[in-house]
């Protein structure tokens, strides 16, 4: 059975993509710690990050680092948070989000999906895409 992330990647469930290529995608989470909270996900459905092929792991982290820089630029935060939790969805993913304090890492403070403002979510995605220079689907813009 496909994970919810695979369904998002395949377009079966809507997602706000900020980056995508053949192996890695990045989209906003529906339950953010802060607006601008992105999940960086391999296209290959792998439950544990420790089971990823080394090349996929390297590319996943390269994209996460680029998304982190974009989040800092887009939101003016002092840092980009980075977390691998892995218990909520059985598909490897890295949480990247704007942060200014360790208290921002507390998942008990995440917004519920129905409590987020769709306009603010769309704005957050667009701000990150602008910083990453990707189009509305997350693909790198051709110069």
TrEMBL record:
<dbReference type="GO" id="GO:0009117">
    <property type="term" value="P:nucleotide metabolic process"/>
</dbReference>
<dbReference type="InterPro" id="IPR011146">
    <property type="entry name" value="HIT-like"/>
</dbReference>
<feature type="domain" description="HIT">
    <location>
        <begin position="4"/>
        <end position="107"/>
    </location>
</feature>
<feature type="short sequence motif" description="Histidine triad motif">
    <location>
        <begin position="91"/>
        <end position="95"/>
    </location>
</feature>
<dbReference type="GO" id="GO:0003824">
    <property type="term" value="F:catalytic activity"/>
</dbReference>
<dbReference type="InterPro" id="IPR001310">
    <property type="entry name" value="Histidine_triad_HIT"/>
</dbReference>
<feature type="active site" description="Tele-AMP-histidine intermediate">
    <location>
        <position position="93"/>
    </location>
</feature>
<dbReference type="InterPro" id="IPR036265">
    <property type="entry name" value="HIT-like_sf"/>
</dbReference>
<protein>
    <submittedName>
        <fullName>HIT family protein</fullName>
    </submittedName>
</protein>
<dbReference type="Pfam" id="PF01230">
    <property type="entry name" value="HIT"/>
</dbReference>
